[in-house]
Amino acid sequence: MTQTTSSPSLLRVIFNRRMLICVFTGFASGMPLYLLFNLLPAWLKTEGLSLKAIGAFALIQFPYTWKFLWSPLLDRYALPWLGRRRGWMALFQIALLGIIAWLGQLSPKEDLHLIVMLTAMLAFFSASLDIVLDAFRRNLLADVEQEMGNTLHVNAYKIASLIPGSLSLVLSDRLPWAQVFFITALFMLPGLIMTLLVSEPHVEAKPPRTLRAAIVEPFQEFFHRHGVQFALFTLSFILLYKLGDSLCTALATPFYMEMGFTKTEIGLVAKNAGLWPSVIGGVVGGILMTRIGINRALWVFGALQAVAILGFAWLAYLGPAPATAERLWTLAGVIGFEAISIGLGTAASVSFIARSTHPAYVATQFALLTSLTAVPRTFINASAGWLVEGMGGWLGFFWLCFVLAIPGMLLLFKVAPWNGSPSSASTESHQ
Questions:
Q1: Is the model's pTM score more than 0.85?
Q2: Are 188 and 11 in contact (CB under 8 A)?
Q3: Which residue intervals of 189-293 are DSSP H helices?
Q4: Chain Cα centroid distance, residue 374
Q5: Which of 243, 400, 409, 427 has its CA 20 to 30 A from that of 199?
Q6: 5 pLDDT exceeds 50?
Q7: The pLDDT of residue 277
Q8: pLDDT class of 309 with cuts at 50, 70, 90
């Protein structure tokens, strides 16, 4: 495998039109997800639904975990307008805008069945939009731009949470819910306008010729590119790289409360010490990835993820106590460092996944690999409460999380050696 000898300057990698496009893709991707997580439960609670009924809406996350099942359709077929990726992007964003606006016209007490159907459709179209946005971004960016582009995408994704999770909630105290949902829906327009204005990325690789090829060939190509053994190492790494920190934060809020912090203190500290340090750290991490390369970034950021777990262990060691100013600063430090570390690790893992995909099958392969990263969050995290009790309390649980962060790091020796060259399917496919 040969690598290009010349590389553009850091400024040219960061400050170009493609990076701005990545900001729009991240915002469009995060908006509907955080609406489901933040705004929808608040609306249902305000309208008098029981916690049991609201909790059942968590099942709408299903499409995000299983989106790889229909991703071959989006690799194989293109709509007759705007191009292979942009046509689907426009369709899904229009559908999401309409559904969000429609939800506000309904009453949870009178139209619950219709609301369930619409939120299920919202989750499906949102997960489908993720598929084509990931594919569009992978085809848009050169290999040297993947790290910075994916970092900006991930951070814009987080910033999108401020709309349904903050602005819309503030508006709901002043406006009827119908207007709140309509205004929230309008925030899908920036991504839609971007889709209409940009050009379809040029890709040398041809799309699959048949639906069968779209289903079979992405898996064949992935396993044949480096051999079955390396492919299995790669899949194991993607599954395990964020296992420790994902499990560690599964019950973060109940843990903080047991340590003596009130919900108000947790909310204020988490908002100020969590989101913005994560965004700033993510941008710095993207620049660092561009400088040191994805392989070394995976090592450094993976180590930071593991160290962040020890912050939770330190809080558990201190034990429950009144929330003094000193302890609030300790909590802020733990939350802030954890947010930065997870942001860095997420950006690095998304960049690694992007480089592991082939341009011809990027929608299917990207959807499969990102679905794999959701497995710990969806299944393993469900055991967190049982593990806390089984390990004799929070301190033992966090030490277990730290240990679980190690296997993913060890797999870096195989999939991303410190002094090795980053693997790129697009580079290899044109040798």
A1: no
A2: no
A3: 189-197, 211-226, 228-240, 243-248, 252-258, 263-270, 276-292
A4: 9
A5: 427
A6: no
A7: 73
A8: very high
